[in-house]
Amino acid sequence: MSIDEKYTRGLRDYEERINSVSSQEMVINMGPQHPSTHGVLRLELITDGEIVKDIIPHLGYLHRCFDKHAESINYTKTIPFTDRLDYLASMNNSHAFVMGVERMLGIQDKIPKRIEYIRVLVCELNRIASHLIAIGTYGIDIGAFTPFMWCFRDREHIMNMLEWASGSRMLYNYIWIGGLFYDLPVNFEERCLEFVDYFKPKLQELDGLLSNNEIFIQRTANIGVLPADVAINYGCSGPMLRASGIKWDLRRVDGYSVYPEIEFDVPVGKGEMGSLGDCWDRYKVRVDEVKESVRIIEQCLERLMGDFKRTVDFDPRALVPKKVNLKAQDYYVRAENPKGELGFYFVTAEKTDIPRRVKARGPSFNNLSVLPELGRGVLIADLIAILGSIDIVLGEVDR
Amino acid sequence: MFEKVKELILGNLGEQAIVTLQDHGLQPAIYMDPNYLLQAAKLLRDTEGFYFDFLANITGVDFHPAAEFDVVYHLSSIPYQTQCVLKVKLANDRSLNNLPEIPSVTSVWRTADWHEREIFDLMGIFFTDHPDLRRILMPDDWEGYPLRKDYQDPESYHQIPIK
């Protein structure tokens, strides 16, 4: 088969760029099996001594064809696949997906409040777990081993609780269209309160261990400064965008689920230790978000044990549709994931419960695309600090 | 917002810029003429009162068996907290040597770079004036465009059976 030359021009330009490096430049492969790339990401670096002159990221090592799978099975069966996008925040993924289908069905206002509060509760627990990994592994990237162990120790409590609720440690399939897999287990709320009491002092310890650590500050402050306009232009969202000083949190902007009824702040970067939008700011925004998530969890628990108490006849599957019958339409739903704006774009087909097209917009995919811009002209060691501060999950970059 | 966006485009680029309007459904959309897409993108990003500075998503949609593709742009405005949807319909004969063509918006929103590469890779839509149009998720020497509805899985890849 002859392929038009025009369609391969980009590839030839890239090959020429690699083959024509000057004698003082060197091409270095970082990844796909490099411990600091947080998964199977391959970066091709063109370096001059220790200075990175250009970065060419290569993706696709974890490409599992989410889009293709989603358009060959029905909406309900796709939920377990969404869990595997950002596998560190499965609850948040399925929440976004389910919200989109519910809005297309027009049942989003009929969902009982107890279900919505449980959804927000598990999502925020998962957000803490995801940020704990981000913070812990960031410590390792910089050379601090202890925060990693501490974060994973605390994350284990969350994993155990979510396993108790859903039966699975990481890939939950807990949030269903129109409801939940099961109600929370008996005494879950009390156990969760115990966790909150345990976790709050641990957060203070973490602050002392890492946030104000002189070595950590020297490695991260003023490194990888991302100005707000560049962040927006590159489609960065979540902690990346907020660290550059933009107060943009879809939980507040869109006010989906029960977030409008809950009190919480949106932390933004302030450039405390260096310039606005540096690596330290991105780290700090995540730490502050964990604190806000704890606040959200407390309020959810208060309501789940008060106004929306467990009752004997409560059926979390009452509204789960047997078949998702949608008329032909298209809809883009977005929600705030731990990593940023997760979007699903649905194009439905008439008279079938199999969609024509489902596109997942992963926040990590967009956040990572700014890396060549951030990493040009830095030291190789700083590139590790920058990459760690973006907090990518390759499951979502490659989908 | 939909009405205002429509009037802005009509007022600045004329009637020929808009092909049709999809005003029903949860998210109304404007079908643009591909020749005016880049101008409309700049206009929507830079005009006061709109400032659609955040390109959330680009999607390619295959309408098999019809010989047409849609490219869908989801824009958000961070200062005004609004959203809008632009679509472009591309007729094409589905031949692999004659891909549908549309201008790249990478010069307006840099995030389009990777999104357009992904659509080129998986859906086979060619973006003219793209700075670096190569496959992004599939291997560089892959043949065909897997997200097309008429795509046939190959039997093997470099003598490795994959079926």
Q: Could you characterize the architecture of this molecule?
A:
The complex is a heterodimer of chains A (399) and B (163). Chain A folds into 2 domains: 5-58; 79-320 and 365-398, Cytochrome-c3 Hydrogenase, chain B (Orthogonal Bundle), CATH 1.10.645.10. Chain A has helices at 9-19, 66-70, 75-83, 90-105, 113-142, 146-166, 188-211, 214-220, 228-233, 239-243, 250-253, 279-304, 363-368, 371-375, 380-390, 394-398, and strands spanning 25-30, 42-48, 51-58, 175-176, 179-180, 330-337, 340-347, 357-361. In chain A, helix 5 packs antiparallel against helix 12 (279-304). Chain A has 399 residues and is mostly helical. In chain A, the strands form 3 sheets. A 3-stranded antiparallel beta sheet of chain A has the order 1-2-3. In chain A, strands 6-7-8 form a 3-stranded antiparallel beta sheet. Chain A contains 16 helices and 8 strands. The mean pLDDT of chain A is 89. Chain A is globular. By secondary structure, chain B is of the alpha/beta class. Chain B has a single domain (2-161), classed as Beta Polymerase, domain 2. In chain B, 21% of the residues lie in helices and 29% in strands. Chain B has helices spanning 2-13, 37-46, 112-123; strands spanning 18-22, 29-32, 54-62, 68-77, 82-91, 101-103, 126-128, 156-157, 160-161. Chain B is elongated and about 55 Å long. The mean pLDDT of chain B is 88.
Task: Please tag this protein with its features.
heterodimer, A: 399 residues, mainly alpha, Cytochrome-c3 Hydrogenase, chain B, 2 domains, 3-stranded antiparallel sheet, B: 163 residues, alpha/beta, Beta Polymerase, domain 2, 5-stranded mixed sheet, 3 helices, 9 strands
Layout of secondary structure:
The complex is a heterodimer of chains A (399) and B (163).
Chain A lengths: L8 H11 L5 E6 L11 E7 L2 E8 L7 H5 L4 H9 L6 H16 L7 H30 L3 H21 L8 E2 L2 E2 L7 H24 L2 H7 L7 H6 L5 H5 L6 H4 L25 H26 L25 E8 L2 E8 L9 E5 L1 H6 L2 H5 L4 H11 L3 H5 L1
Antiparallel strand pairs in A: 1-2, 2-3, 4-5, 6-7, 7-8
Chain B lengths: L1 H12 L4 E5 L6 E4 L4 H10 L7 E9 L5 E10 L4 E10 L9 E3 L8 H12 L2 E3 L27 E2 L2 E2 L2
Parallel strand pairs in B: 2-5, 6-7
Antiparallel strand pairs in B: 1-2, 3-4, 4-5, 8-9
